[in-house]
Each structure stands twice: as C-alpha cells, then as structure tokens.
Amino acid sequence: MNWPELSLLLAWPAALWLPALPFWDSWRLLADRLAAKVNKGGPRQQRLAGALALLLLWGSLLALALVLSLSADLPLVIEGLAFYLALSDGRPATLKAMESLGKVQGRQLLGTLLKRDCSAYTPEGLAKAAVEGRWRYTKERLLLVLLLLPSAGLVALLLRAWWQLAERWHPARPGFWEFGRAALGPARLCRALGLVPALFWLVLPLKPSALFTREKPRQLAMLAWALGCQLGGPLRLQGRRLQRPRVGPATAPSSASLRRFRHLALSAELGTLLLIGLWLALS
C-alpha cells in the first residue's frame, strides 16, 4: 500500500475547504502587468509579444518547478503543496452564486468569468452560459485530479498556470485578439484531455444515448441531452453576434439545472479520487 502517495489525495479536500493562498491572485497580477507593458503595436508585433511574454512568465515557473523537483529533500511535500495550489479555485463559488443571483448581478459576474458580453442575456441565456462555463471548468478539474495518480503535482500546477494565462490573455478580451493566441491552442488541447472522464461521469450515467447524438457542436449536444435542457444559441463576442445552433431538448435550463450540474461535477471529482485511492491502496 502506497501510504505516501495516498496522502497526496488530501490535497483535494484541502483545496475545497481551506482558504486559498494568494498565489493565483499574484499570478494574475503578474500576467496583467506584463501584458500592459508589452501588448502594443500592430497585429504581428502583438502576436510576437504574446509568445515572448508566455515564454518569460510560464517558462520562469517551469524552471522553478524543475529546480524543486531535482533538489527537494521532501518531494512529496512539494507535490502535495503543488496539488493544493493547482486545485484551489474561486470559480466554483462564482458559478454557484449564479444559481441565486438576479439578472443584473448575474450578467456582471458571468461576463467577468467567461470573457463575454453578457449585458443583453436573458435569464435563460445566463443559465446556458453558466452551464457551458461549468462544463469547461469540470474538464479542467477532472484532468488535474487524474494527475494525482502519477503524483504529478508540479505538472498539475504548471497546467493550471497555463490555463490561467490563457484566460487572462484570452483573445475574446478587448485588445488581446492577437496577443493571447499563443496560449489559447495548447490550453484547449490540454483541456480536451479531460473530456473522456467528463463524459464518463457526467453524460454516460445520465443518458448513454447522448454519446451518439449527431447534433453539432457534439460536446455541447451530448451535455444538453444528458442534462435534459437546451444549450447553445447566439453568442456575442468582441461586439459581434455569432450564430450557433441550439442543441438538445426544447426545455430551457434553469437554476435547478445549474444545481444538478454542480452536484454531478463534485460527485465526478470525488468518484475519480476514490478510484485513484483504491488503485494506490491495492498496488
């Protein structure tokens, strides 16, 4: 029984219940200040500046992680702290607040979280956007929890740091259309690695037939049929109205849909954690 590795699993409940350290606030502040200094010039210069800023900021964290992994006297302590930092996140509280907030407050809060113009969203549109945000967040979380199996805390921390940069410099934000492109592709690719566990825990138990839907976009359609509510529809980005197909049944999402999804997502993380613990206990 791998007792030291099993102890790393405590990082998950610790990240849920203990107050978060100011690490990510400092990381976002660094990202914003660096972007304010170098995000200038024409499109080509902005793309180059974005790539170099990414290399400087995330590369510095990578170098620190390598030094710690090679020289630490207590590697499991370092990995445990890294997992705790990677799993500490304020977005769950934001998404949970969407279940009870009024329309005006919900528009402001969700617009900040999703980098969208939510000023004209109806309550139904806000619920749809919150479900989509929770889906993206859940894929990230499940991938981070899976990294507990190989005790890869520093990898989880580096991955979360990349996602944070991709979020702060997202091309959907005004002035970041060119600057944020360097981080976006790898961030989406890594997030896609969390798709399989998300489908396994959130879609398969609810409605297995949803996995075979032909509606597009497929991910959104599978989630819509599993939750039993309609998703998709027009999206406003960079001041432009983008037409997207509506997928799923005709039932509009509601606060109850958000609560159900939140409970399912938390159960998915817990189920993944228990399976990892069982594997480590038997190996």
Rg from Cα: 20 Å
Largest sheet: 2 strands, antiparallel
Low-confidence stretches: none
Anisotropy-based shape: globular
User: Number of helix segments?
Assistant: 13
- Topology, number of strands: 4
How far apart are the first and last residues' alpha carbons, in Å? 6 Å
Strand order in the largest sheet: 1-4
How is this structure best described in words?
The model has no long low-confidence stretch (mean pLDDT 87). The strands form 2 sheets. The protein has a two-stranded antiparallel sheet. A two-stranded antiparallel ribbon has the order 2-3. It has one domain (3-282). It is globular and about 55 Å long. Helix 2 crosses helix 5 (75-87). With 283 residues, it is mostly helical. The protein has helices at 3-7, 11-17, 23-38, 43-71, 75-87, 91-97, 103-114, 123-146, 153-168, 181-192, 195-203, 218-227, 255-282, and strands spanning 231-232, 235-237, 240-242, 246-247.
